[in-house]
Amino acid sequence: MTREEELKELASSLQAAIAKARQLDLPTSAYILSLALVEVSQTIAAELRGPSDSK
């Protein structure tokens, strides 16, 4: 499994966890998981753009 596939799988798991946290009325947990999802999504986008010189 490639890193991109692993990140997409992680994003999918986070989305499921967010939905479950909302179902269980855990807004703080849903918020924190949403922040993690944003970070994973940004990482996926950055990797799709390729290497950058800003690192």
Instruction: Note poorly predicted spans.
Output: none
Distance N terminus to C terminus? 25 Å
Structural class: mainly alpha
- Measured by DSSP, the beta-strand proportion falls in under 5%
Structural shape? elongated
Largest sheet at a glance? none
Specify Rg, calculated over alpha carbons.
13 Å
Q: Sketch the topology as an H/E string, one letter per element.
A: HH
Structure summary, number of beta strands: 0
Total individual domains = 1
In percent, how helical is the residue content? Answer: over 70%
Number of helices: 2
Kindly report the average pLDDT value.
93
Description:
With 55 residues, this protein is mainly alpha-helical. The protein has one domain. 80% of the residues lie in helices and 0% in strands. It is built from 2 helices and no strands. The longest helix has 23 residues, at 27-49.
SSE arrangement:
Layout: H1 3-23, H2 27-49
Helix pairs in contact: 1-2
Task: Describe the structure concisely for a colleague.
The protein has two helices and no strands. With 55 residues, it is mostly helical.
Properties at a glance:
55 residues
